[in-house]
């Protein structure tokens, strides 16, 4: 069984009812952006790597601005690192024409950090699936994995036992979600008027998240997370009910 210190983020995902690897994804982003803001951006080697990558991707640039610009009300740090980035771009552009070259491409350093961290957490998760029955049961009884992270975990699995547990857990979670979606659809019809909403009320939202990944906590990276950064969940769907006897919209073939 893997150390609880290494699986802390995964277990938080189980506790919060989201894909455990999405929880690791969000924590890795927060860890890197705070590290960059607090200390790494003052190191010449880090700024050089940042400049070679043409700065952060759009998502990580927004995360940095939420801390520095929105929360700290300063732009000096952003200005310094992006001045180095633009100066590097000018130097690279000057070398393009004589040799008809191309601009070099490097990964956003925050994305590279997150991807390595996700790879580590996938290994921890696969070990837990094999060695910890309680972990397996909680994952199957909860959200399972989002499809993007399931693909990563499936590709990283190295034994038939890992693949077996991974497939069973995901199938169990998806089967329960499908049942909740059917029940939610039924309660949207006029003949079900007056029936109280149940745990199926936000199944439509969880289906989106299972398909594409759970979003990061709504609070900015500069704010404390709180007891459950993913709560409260979105309100139940309030779309108009389908009148009794009226056919539902035809599905596309």
Q: What are the SSEs and their pairings?
A:
Elements: H1 8-16, H2 20-38, H3 44-52, H4 58-71, H5 76-94, H6 96-99, H7 109-131, H8 133-141, H9 147-156, H10 160-187, H11 203-212
Helix pairs in contact: 1-2, 2-4, 2-7, 3-5, 7-10, 8-10, 10-11
Low-confidence stretches: 233-253
Helical residue percent band = 55-70%
Order of helices and strands: HHHHHHHHHHH
User: Shape from CA axes?
Assistant: globular
Q: Structural class, judged by helices and strands?
A: mainly alpha
Strand tally, please? 0
Beta-strand content: under 5%
Largest sheet: none
Instruction: Determine the N-to-C terminus distance.
Output: 47 Å
On the 0 to 100 scale, the average pLDDT is 89
* Radius of gyration (Å): 23 Å
- Number of continuous helical runs: 11
Description:
The protein is mainly alpha-helical and 253 residues long. The protein is built from eleven helices and no strands. The longest helix has 28 residues, at 160-187. The chain is globular and about 70 Å long.
List descriptors:
single chain; 253 residues; mainly alpha; 11 helices; 0% strand
Short description:
This protein is an all-alpha fold. The chain is built from 11 helices and no strands. The longest helix is centred in the last third of the chain and has 28 residues, at 160-187.
